Amino acid sequence: MRLLKHPVHRAFQALARDHGPIFSLRLGSQRAVVVSSAALAEECFTKNDIVFGNRPHFILGKHLEYDNTTVTMSPYGEHWRNLRRIGAVEIFSTARVNSFTSIRREEVHRIVARLMTGGRQRVELTSAFNDLAFNNMTRMVAGKRYYGGGEFTKIMKEVAELGGATNAVDFVPLMRWLDRGRFEKTVKELAGNMDRFFQGLIEEHKSKEEKLESTSTMIDRLIALQENDPESYDDQLIKGLALVMLLAGTDTNAVTLEWIMSNLLNHPDVLAKARDEIENQIGSDRLIEETDLPNLPYLHNIISETQRLYPPTPMLVPRISTDDCVVGGYHVPRDTILIVNAFAIHRDPSLWDDPTTFRPERFDEISGAKEGGRFLAFGMGRRSCAGQGVALRVVGLTLGTLIQCFDWERVGEGEVDMAEAKGITMPRETPLEAVCVPRPNMKRFFP
Question: How would you describe this protein's topology in the membrane (predicted)?
Answer without folding.
Answer: Single-pass membrane protein
